[in-house]
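Figure 2 data, in text form.
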Amino acid sequence: MFSLENTADSTSPTLLLGSAMWGWTTPPAVAFQLLDSFYAAGFRQIDTATNYPINKQPEDFRRAENILLEWIKAHQVADLQVIVKIGSLNNLRSPEHNLTHSFLLMNSDDYYFRLGRNLAMLMVHWDNRDQLADIQQTFEGFQTIQAQGIRVGLSGIRHPTLYAELNQIFQFDFQIQIKHNIFHSDYEHYAPFHRKQRFLAYGINAGGIKLQASAYHADSSLRARGGDTTEPHSLTTALQQLLFEANQQPSRPPLDSMNHIGMLYAYHSPDIRGIIIGPSSTAQLQETLLFYRQMQQFDYLDVIKKLKSMHLDHGV
């Protein structure tokens, strides 16, 4: 019988509970259940953003974080490690942002007031700027934030080389969120920051792609985001065959979903510090926690090699 307690060592990628769909396809009551189960299993890291959910409904701007805040207050929790991505000015999927020194400090004060000791990190969210002088304002804001005991990080940076150039002066120990799955990875985009376990992988299920068309339901995240669920991805057949071959080994638990593929691929990728998961039900969460333990206890090296080869062969 597998324990669902958080027993990962400090060098293994940990799990973070994502909130991108809270208040959208994941109702607040379900988000509360997810938080209850995740917390009870010993995990503490939560990922959210000012503009979650990004559903193009202005009235839902900051709704995900407010669901989290309601749960924190209801349970009087003070030992979470919450990452908040800031800078975006709406949830319309637009690049509009404010990353000036003063705006960052205003957000830092606001989130510390709201989250207290639960606030662990503030991350820049979606920065398309290409001028060092503009970006330096953000770094100066980071200096003040870090001096307050809050870590800083990056997500969705168009020009990482400029951030790396400035960081030769400021020396921030950034954590960086990247989309990272068998179909697409932003890891190479952040080459100046390689060779350190600093990356947090999100989108491990490629936005909700299923191996079987029948697995999509009315509130599937891929459908909610406007994706096509009628046509299978070009790699679906190859992945189904890979799972069939992998499951010929009776000495380990079988693989049967994109979630398993995504977890394995991220867990065994270079420099990955954590994996952001986005379950839509407690059943999905429990299945993810179980497989997380199985990855630590069983050998899936043959599958990992094939996944990495498939990634390279298809140029994705």
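Caption note: The chain has a mean pLDDT of 90.
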